[in-house]
Amino acid sequence: MSNYLIKEHPKYYEWFAEKEFTWDRTGGDPITQGNRNPLLYKNIGADGIKTGYLAVEKYSLASSIFRKGRRLIAVGSGFETKSSRSRESSKLLTYGLTNFDLVEINKSKEPIDQIEVWLGKQGYVDVHIDTDIYKTIKKAKKKLLKISIKYDGPIEAPVKKNQKVGIFKVVYDQELIGEYDLLASNDVQKVNIFSRLIKSLNYLIWGDV
Q: C-alpha angle 27/35/6, rounded to 5°?
């Protein structure tokens, strides 16, 4: 929910960083109320989000920080006191910043590879993924992040732009953490019948596609 608020309503989210708010009331003087989020006053870069208290769950805090292009969100509950809520939430955010990195794996629509095309006017087609891919990875274990492209090739022409031609997989520490459609970046027309005949003969004789 916190992530949705920040991404989908950034203008409203700016309000959560205000340390105080003054509002007028009918029949009385204006009232100034301070923000109850203790992390806003620690000068660590926190800009939200919300404190809470329930009789069963005790004190809670959803907090967030944005630093050097990274956004971290921490949610904790069950704290016995306000001070422990503040202290432990600060530790959570600091731990995330210190021990994890946000790794950019792919930029949307940018070609990432080429796939061989059979009976096409071009021998290869660029491929891309239609989404940005970022993963949060432990700094000490970045080498465990692997990517792979899976497809049955060569792809037979004609190929249409944005046609699914394979799968892009992201694996971390031998566990699949993401799977995305691999799309053709452009059209590839089929060669004429004479060229197809020559290519087919070459393939039968030489195994050359």
A: 115
